[in-house]
Amino acid sequence: MENCLFCKIIAGEIPAKKVYEDDLMVAIEDIAPKAPLHLLLIPKRHFSNCLDMAEQDETTVGHLFRVAGQLATERGLSEGGFRLVQNNGADAGQTVFHLHIHLLAGRELQWPPG
Ligand code: 5GP
Ligand code: ZN
């Protein structure tokens, strides 16, 4: 997808601190972290958010969640906990319209979020 920031990061056209990659996805450090640990889990196939998902994307989204658990466990978060967030549309605060899951941890996270 032209002019998509995350497609450019996946293609290596824009640098990012990549912490994980496989055939379906990458995980990178957020450029403006909202918690001591703030990763973004991004499918390689472009779709804007859950409103734009095709049936073929279901497996990938399940994979994103499983890898999120794996990355959290590797970082010692399985006991204390962590948060996964996925914003859909401007009112929810989505600013990059290529689906991604935020993994946040390392501080007390308020619920409900603001
Ligand atoms: P959204 O608001 O769409 O749910 O999340 C987009 C996230 O992408 C934000 O947390 C923002 O800080 C992050 N972000 C924006 N531009 C860049 C960038 O160029 N590199 C990285 N690594 N993260 C970015
Ligand atoms: Zn994209």
Automatic annotation (TrEMBL):
Quote the InterPro entries the UniProt record gives.
Histidine_triad_CS, Histidine_triad_HIT, HIT-like, HIT-like_sf
Where do the catalytic residues lie? 100 (tele-amp-histidine intermediate)
Query: Which PROSITE patterns does the UniProt record give?
Result: HIT_1 (PS00892), HIT_2 (PS51084)
Gene3D superfamilies in UniProt: HIT-like
Q: Where is the HIT domain?
A: 5-114
Q: Name one GO molecular function term.
A: catalytic activity
Q: Supply the name of the protein.
A: Histidine triad (HIT) family protein
Species of origin: Trichlorobacter thiogenes
